[in-house]
Write the structure tokens for this entry.
Amino acid sequence: RIGISKTGVAEWLSNIGSFSYIRLSRDDYGVVKKTAHFYAKEAGVPDPIRLTTMKPSGSVSLLVGVSSGIHYPTFPYAIRRIRVAADSPIDLVMSGSGIKPETSLKEPGTHIYSFPIEQSKARPATSVSAWEQFALLATTQREWSDNAVSCTIYFDPETEGDQIEFMLGHFVPLIKSVSMLPHTPAGAYDLMPYEGITKERYEEEIKKLKPINWNLYREKQESAPLSGPDSSILFCDNDICATE
């Protein structure tokens, strides 16, 4: 069992449309199947019983600047907040570069840094009906993913809340899993990890960004290197990620 995944599907759909998305998903699946068979034969093992998946792909998608998996961006423009331990290497880099943190009242010893981001050119989830999101989920499950598609359907509780029963009744026979959440208003609570903003505020905030001196990170690591049982571990091991 393997799981080759995709991401940025919302942008893809915006550029090529549903018909081409289906055709290319079928073509890509054929390539994956052929390649998996080749390597299984080379290794002398049976072909995988599952080939494809659609994972959440949150971190990878952020790195390349696309929406995650098959999800539409929640907001066109947003504030992304990260929480780091005070006096950690990342905290030193940010504060040393002149970026001022906010202090978490509920998490002593934690600093919160905020960055404006532009999500993508795809339609925001608030303008895509839950029915359309379900249709994309079912299409992706049918045309691409052997394993379950990771998908959260966002809905308007006022206009679509009474339709959820019918949505589930219609699509559950066609999918393997789904979760649903109501749209969250921008600024629903203080210091949200992800908060929608206007284009005007985004343009204001982007002007305030200062260059980040990443040399400070290495200097911090060299002055206080990792120690203990994980000192020889690089990259990630279970839920621990160490860098050098």
